[in-house]
Design brief:
The protein has four helices and 30 strands. The strands form four sheets. It has a 15-stranded mixed sheet that branches. It has a domain of 195 residues. With 523 residues, it is mainly β. The protein is globular, with a radius of gyration of 22 Å. The protein is 6% helix and 30% strand.
C-alpha cells in the first residue's frame, strides 16, 4: 500500500488534470451503481464488420452496433462501453476499434456472498484476443461483480491490452503511470476482516473493495469461478481515491480457486502491480514492470499459490516492496493468510532509505521458494506485531509457524532488517541451509534471465507446498505449483515464456517479438 506522501502527490496530480478526472471528496467518485445503465442492443454481433471495409492501421469507420462513438484517438475509433453489462456480451476485436471505459464499468450486478442478493444478476463478459480497451481518467475502471465472469483470453502472439487514452494518442513514456483505474475482479471465496460482525469465512463475511465506493467481495465458496484472464496486459493504471484506498493494476477480491489467471503483465501502475484481498486464487506467469508501490501485495486471509514471476522496478521510480504480505493489523482474524510463491526474480532499483524488497508482517503464513532477489536495499524485513509473524505453530489460529524460505538467493544492500529481531529472522532464513544464500552475487542476463550463478543453485520441489492444511483444497484448481529443477522466473536464454505477449520498455526488454509499451497495435 502506498505511503501518504506518494498518495497525496498522485491525488493532487489527478486533480490538476481536472478535464480528465473528477477529483475531490468521495461524492465525486463514480459508484458502481451510479449512472444510466446502458445495455447494448442487440449484443454486439459475433462478426461485426465496419463499413466501408477497414484500411489496416486506420480507425474504423464506425462502432459495432450498440456502442457509443467517442471519436478517433490515434489509429483507433473509441467505442464507449456501457456503465453496466446486463447480459452476456462478447467484445469483438474489430480492426481500428478500441473500447472506452468511462467511470466504473460493471460486469453484472452483485449476487451476494451466498448468491441470493436481491437484484443480483450474473453476467459473462468475453473479450476476444487482440482487443484494446482504455480508460481516460483515474476513476475509469472495469469491475467484475460477484457471480459474474470475465473471459479475457488473449494469445501468446495477440494479447488483450487494457491501457490509457494517452497510450492511444501516442504520448506515453517509460515514466507514464496512473492514467486510469485498472481491472477489479471480485468473487465469493473466504476473506478475513469483514465489514460486518459475522465470523470470517462465512457467506456473510464481506468487504468493500479498495478503489470503489460499494463493490463487495467475499463469501464461503472457496472454488468460486470469476472467469479466465490469460495473455493480458494492463498498462499505466493505478489511482488513489484517498489515502489507503487505491486502484491497482489488477485487484482481486475474494476470487475463488476455479478462476484462471496466468500470463498477465502489469506495466507502470502508480500503485501496486497486483493486490490480492483474501480468496483462494492461484496465479502463474506474471510480469510486473514499473509498479510504483508493491509488486505483489497480499492480505485479508489470501490463501493461494503464485509461480513464475518477473518483477522489475523502473530506475528512478518510487517503487516500494516487491512483496508485501500482512493482515492489516488484525493478526489473528481467520482465515489466516497462507501464500506460497515459487520461481520469482525480483529486481529492485529504488534506493530511498528504509526500503525493503520483501516485507512480511501481521502474522502472515508465507513461503518463498526457488527465487532470486536483487536490491540495493534490505532484502528481507519481517516486521513483528506482538511476535505473531515468527511465533510457533498454532493450529487453532491456522498458523504453521514462521515464514519459510527454500532455495532463495539474495544480493542485498542489507540482508536482514527486522525491527530489532534480526537474529531470529536470520535464523529463520538460514543462510547456508535449505539452499538459501543472503550474500549471493547474481549473474542475471538481460536483467531477469538466469546466469551461471543461478543455475548452480539446487531447486526445491514446490509441489510439496501446495497443500493447505486448514482449508479444503481443490486439487484440480488451475495453476497449482508445478515441479521445477531451477530457481528464478526464467531458467535460461531458451526459456521464453514471457516473449511476444508482453510489452517492452527502456528498462525491461522482453525481446524482438514483444512490442513497445508505448505503442498500440495497428490491426
Amino acid at each position: 500500500m502506498a505511503s501518504i506522501k506518494r498518495i497525496s502527490s498522485i491525488f493532487l496530480a489527478g486533480c490538476a488534470l481536472s478535464t480528465l478526472a473528477a477529483c475531490g471528496g468521495a461524492d465525486d467518485v463514480a459508484s458502481p451503481g451510479d449512472g444510466v445503465i446502458i445495455t447494448p442492443t442487440p449484443t454486439p454481433p459475433q462478426t461485426p464488420t465496419p463499413t466501408p471495409p477497414q484500411t489496416p492501421g486506420q480507425p474504423a469507420a464506425s462502432c459495432p452496433t450498440g456502442f457509443t462513438d467517442g471519436g478517433v484517438i490515434g489509429s483507433r475509433r473509441a467505442c464507449q462501453l456501457p456503465s453496466r453489462f446486463t447480459q452476456d456480451t462478447t467484445l469483438q476485436n474489430v480492426p481500428g476499434v478500441a473500447y472506452s471505459i468511462v467511470g466504473a464499468v460493471n460486469v453484472g450486478t452483485d449476487v451476494g456472498g451466498d448468491g441470493t442478493a436481491a437484484g443480483g444478476q450474473p453476467v459473462t463478459l468475453s473479450i476476444q484476443a487482440g482487443t484494446v480497451l482504455f480508460g481516460s481518467a483515474g476513476n475509469d475502471y472495469l469491475v467484475v461483480n460477484r457471480g459474474s465472469r470475465l473471459q479475457a483470453v488473449g494469445t501468446a502472439t495477440n494479447p488483450i491490452i487494457f491501457t490509457a487514452r494517452a497510450n492511444l494518442a501516442g504520448t506515453t513514456t517509460d515514466s507514464s503511470m496512473g492514467l486510469w483505474g485498472g481491472v477489479v475482479l471480485l468473487g465469493r471465496a473466504p476473506i478475513s476482516d469483514c465489514n460486518t460482525a459475522v465470523a470470517g469465512g462465512t457467506a456473510g463475511c464481506q468487504q468493500v473493495i479498495e478503489g470503489t465506493t460499494g463493490s463487495l467481495y467475499g463469501g464461503a465458496t472457496a472454488n468460486d469461478n470469476s472467469g479466465t484472464l490469460q495473455y493480458v496486459q494492463i498498462r499505466y493504471s493505478g489511482f488513489a481515491i484517498a489515502p489507503g484506498n487505491e486502484l491497482q493494476g489488477l485487484t482481486l477480491g475474494g476470487v475463488g480457486n476455479n478462476t484462471t489467471i496466468d500470463h498477465i503483465q502489469i506495466h507502470n501502475s502508480s500503485d501496486d502491480g497486483i493486490e490480492i484481498f483474501g480468496g483462494r486464487s492461484n496465479l502463474k506467469h506474471l510480469v510486473i514492470t514499473g509498479a510504483d508501490d508493491d509488486n505483489l501485495d497480499t492480505d485479508l486471509g489470501y490463501r493461494g499459490t503464485i509461480q513464475f514471476v518477473i518483477g522489475i522496478q523502473k530506475p528512478g521510480g518510487d517503487g516500494d516492496s516487491m512483496i508485501e504480505a500482512d493482515s492489516n493489523g488484525n493478526e489473528d482474524a481467520l482465515p489466516r493468510q497462507y501464500t506460497r510463491v515459487s520461481n520469482a526474480t525480483f529486481v529492485q532499483s529504488h534506493t530511498s532509505s528504509g526500503g525493503n524488497a520483501i516485507l512480511m508482517r501481521g502474522g502472515t503464513d508465507y513461503a518463498l521458494l526457488n527465487s532470486v532477489v536483487v536490491t540495493p536495499q534490505a532484502c528481507l524485513d519481517i516486521d513483528e506485531t506482538a511476535g505473531t509473524t515468527t511465533r510457533a505453530a498454532d493450529a487453532a489460529l491456522q498458523d504453521l509457524g514462521a515464514p519459510v524460505f527454500r532455495s532463495v538467493v539474495m544480493q542485498c544492500g542489507t540482508a536482514i532488517r527486522a525491527d530489532g529481531n534480526e537474529a531470529a529472522v536470520t535464523t529463520i532464513f538460514g543462510t547456508g541451509t535449505n539452499n538459501n544464500n543472503s550474500a549471493f552475487t547474481a549473474s542475471l542476463a538481460n536483467v531477469f534471465v538466469n546466469g551461471a550463478a543461478e543455475t548452480g543453485v539446487t531447486a526445491t520441489d514446490p509441489t510439496t507446498f501446495n497443500a493447505d492444511q486448514f482449508a479444503t483444497v481443490n486439487a484440480a484448481a488451475p495453476n497449482r505449483l508445478t515441479a521445477v529443477t531451477y530457481i528464478g522466473a526464467v531458467r535460461d536464454a531458451n526459456d521464453t515464456w514471457y516473449a511476444g505477449w508482453t510489452c517492452t520498455s527502456g528498462y525491461a526488454n522482453f525481446g524482438a517479438t514483444s512490442a513497445a509499451c508505448t505503442a498500440i497495435p495497428t490491426t
